[in-house]
Amino acid sequence: MTIEVRVPQLPESVADATLVSWHKKPGDAVTRDENLVDLETDKVVLEVPAPVAGVLKEIKLSDGTTVTSGQVLAIIEEGATALPGASAPAIMTASSGAAKTAADAVKPDGAAARADAAGAKLSPAAKRVVEENKVDPKAVTGSGRDGRVSKSDVVNYLSAKDAVPAPTKAPAAPTTLRTRTGRADQRVPMTRLRARIAERMIQAQATQALLTSFNEVDLKAVNELRARYKDQFEKQHGVKLGFMSFFAKACVEALKKFPAVNASVDGNDIVYHEYFDVGVAVSTDRGLIVPVLRDVDLQSFAEIEKSIANFAGRARAGTITMEELTGGTFTITNGGVFGSLLSTPIVNSPQSAILGMHKIQDRAVVIDGQVVVRPMMYIALTYDHRIIDGREAVQFLVTVKQCLEDPARMVLGI
After folding, report:
1. How far apart are CA 46 and CA 8, in angstroms?
2. What are the backbone angles phi and psi of residue 89, rounded to the nearest 5°?
3. What CATH number should be reported for the domain holding residue 267?
4. What is the residue-averaged pLDDT of the chain?
């Protein structure tokens, strides 16, 4: 019995996806729920599992094809067994309809690594690292389910390989350096995620009246609190006590006082959200994505830290879900991890504001008439001036500053 493999139902906010790469070729045996192909949307990479066990009889669409919900990707012969040495069935491409067998395909330079990667149990992120570094995926031990290889597995393999001293080679004979006579350009298409980021950034600047206000925070109290309880916190909760939970909690206290910062514009209406879903920007090798922490006001510091660590790991591995990236009433981004001292972040539309964290730097400040050295951070709030007045933006930042400089405020709600 033949079974069709179709594109899963995409969310309403996603019109289509791009077929990135097949992990199986026609004639291969497949097991139920085994990943057959990766689809890239403008937010995440989706895996399409085999609905039944059998043999992949036919691939309908080739890599790079744009697909929509319900479109047929391949045909599986349910219950069939792959014969050793059997030639692969024909691959039919949607554009040409012409058939060619996998046995007749001629691979260009670098295709060997891609073919090996496609046949191994690799996550999308791991596959990219394998291809870029020309690693034999069979040499990497997978730590995931059923031996699945993650990006961290490949990175650890490369690190261990680099640590082994290379054999000493005889000095190379002198060569004549060729004078460069020209400069080359490399043109590559944007990934769907990068294109979507560009679209949303332009949309935000074109449709919102964006303005940025700044303040600075003395993080001495937060540092002392973290130093005092970090070991006990990690032992009890299994996660490190970072800065983001403090900032998320401080922002919620400020959002409660200034509801317009937690609102959004819908036509001629202002929608005031009576919940606090905070997006936390995460940098990945594919671009910036923003997983959303739901109901932050109801979460403990430990729950926030666990959620952030989980999101960051799965975002970089390409396994985060679409639902975890949708929604959100406010966003926090931390350019400080890359050394940024000051920036003006762009609002994540349709939200109306975003807080930018920056590098913590010891600076001389005057406190009670004395010059002292304190760990200072500049914070920035970019906001939609259509619904948020300058007074509200400034007071929002002052509230965040007060909560962080005196963390007891967040416990007492003052």
Report:
1. 9
2. -65, 170
3. 3.30.559.10
4. 82
* One-character DSSP codes across 163-195: HSPPPP-PPPPP-PPPPP--------PPPHHHH
Contact 48, 7 (CB under 8 A): yes
d(CA 278, CA 348): 11
**What are the structure tokens assigned to 277, written together?**
């879903």
pLDDT band for position 186 (cuts 50, 70, 90): confident
**Amino acid at residue number 91:** I
Q: Which domain holds residue 243?
A: 192-412
- DSSP codes joined into one string, 210-231: EEEEEEEEE-HHHHHHHHHHHH
Alpha carbon distance 54, 77 (integer Å)? 5
Catalytic sites, residue numbers: 385, 389
Q: pLDDT digit string (tens) for 354-401?
A: 999 999 999 999 999 999 999 999 999 999 999 999 999 999 999 999
Who contacts 199 (Cβ-Cβ below 8 Å, separation ≥6)?
none
85 secondary structure, DSSP code: T
Strands (E), 225-352: 263-266, 269-272, 278-280, 282-284, 287-289, 292-293, 330-334
Domain count within the chain: 2
